[in-house]
Queue: 2 jobs
Job 1
Amino acid sequence: MKISYLVSSVCLCLLASAPAFAVSRAAISGDYVEVRSCDVYTGPCFANGEMGLTGREAMLAWSIREGAWQGVKLDGLKVLAVVEAQGTLGNVERFPHPAKAVLIVDSKADARQREALAGFARHMAGRLLDNVVGVEVSPIEVTVHPSACHNNGCSLARAENLAEIQTRCLGGADHVCGNERCFYPPLTKIHDARPAFTVAGMFHGTGLGVTFDEAGRRSAYLGTFSEPEEASALVAR
C-alpha cells in the first residue's frame, strides 16, 4: 500500500474531526495526547472484532501552554486522566459507558491550581469523568509533535511511576486492510486530531483496581485544544 494513500486517509480524519471555531478569545489552550486499549484508526472489520472486548481503558493528557481556568492561571501545567469503562469507549451506539477514573495533576501546581486542573479535565471529558475515584499528584512531562515525525516519536506523556504514553507517526506499514479511517473519535473536544501509533501506553497506579500495559496499536490521538473564556466563566458560576 502506498504511503500517499495513508496520508490522504489521515488528512480525511483531520477534516472530519476539526470542529467549527467560534469567534471568541481562548481562556486556555495547549496540546493533547490520548491513548486507548483498542485501535482507533482502523477498518470496520477489525473494529467489529474488538468491540465489547477491548477499548475499555484510556488515558487523556492535557498540556496547557497558556491560559486560566475559573480565574486560576495554569500556564505550563499538565493534567492526565486514566479511565476504565464497562464497555468499549467510543462505541457511538452506547457511549458513554459507566466509567471510573483517576486524575493525575501536576506536582508543580499549588493547591488552587490543582483544583482548577481537575475542574478543567472534568469539563473537557464530560461524563467520562463523572466518577473520579482518586486524585494523584506527580511530576508530569508532555511533549507533542503533532505535525512532524521525530527520531524519538511524535509524542511523550509521562507521570512519574504512574503512567506513560509514547507514540510515533503512522507509516505505510500501518495501513493494513485498505479501509482504515478514524473509526472511534477522540474522547474530548480537540482541534487537528491526528491518529498515531502507540509505542507504549502504561498505567501502574492504584485506584482503578487494575493496571494495564498497551502497545503496538493504532490507538492514539494527538491534537490541540482551546476553550473560550465563556466556558470557564460558565463553569465557575
Job 2
Amino acid sequence: MPGTQLGDRASIEPRFELALQGIWIAFQPIVAWSEEALVRTSEASLVRPPDFFDAAERLNRVHDLGRLVRRQIALEVQAAQAGLTFVNVHPRDLNDSELFDEGAPLTTVASRVVIEISERASLHDVAGLAARLSRLRELGFRIAIDDVGAGYAGLSAFARLEPDFVKLDISLVRNVDLSPKKRGLVKAIANVCSVNLGMSVICEGVERSGERDVLVEDGLNLFQGHLFAKAASGFPEPTW
C-alpha cells in the first residue's frame, strides 16, 4: 500500500517540508487538445506521488500541498496560454475555502482548468458537496472524475459529481486490444458516459498503438499516455 514505508510522523515531517520546497509540476498531453498537470518533487524519499500525498494526509497538510500546487499550476497556465489543463484535487481540498476564492491564483484561469477528483478517495467527508461543486462551476471550472475503474465509489460518484469528463483508469486501458471482455467493458462505460450522460471520456495509460487503434475503432478519441508523450515540465508536444 502507498505510504506504508514512510515511517512515523516525526520522521515524515522534515522530509515533507523538503518535498514542498522541491515541488515542481509536470504536464502530460491529453490527445487531442488538453494537458494534465502532475505533481512532482525533488525530495527522494517522497518522489512517488502516492507517498507524497499520503504524507500530506498523515500530517494533516493536504491544504498546504494543494494550495502550493494550484499556485504553481496557475503560473504555468498563465505563461503558456494553453488550452484546458486538468488539475488533480484531493477530496479534502474541496473543504478548503481558498479553492472557492475569486481572488485565488487558480481561479484567475478557471475557464481553462478542469478540476480532477479521484475516484480512489472518499467524498463522504466533504460537507455540502453539491453546493461546492456548483460554486466551482460558477467560477468557470469544469469537473472530471479520475481513475474510473480503480476506485470504490462506483456509480455514486457519477451521481454526486455530474462530471464533464470521465477518465478511465489505466487498469481498464492496459492491453484492451488483447482482452475482448475488457474491451467490451470499456466500450460499455464509454457509451453510457458519452451517449446517455453527455460526458467526454478520456483513456489514461495508452502505451501501445494496438490499444489506441482498438479504442479509436470503438469510438473513443481522447487519450493520454506514453505512446503520445511522457510527463515533463512545461507543456510537452505530443507525438502521433
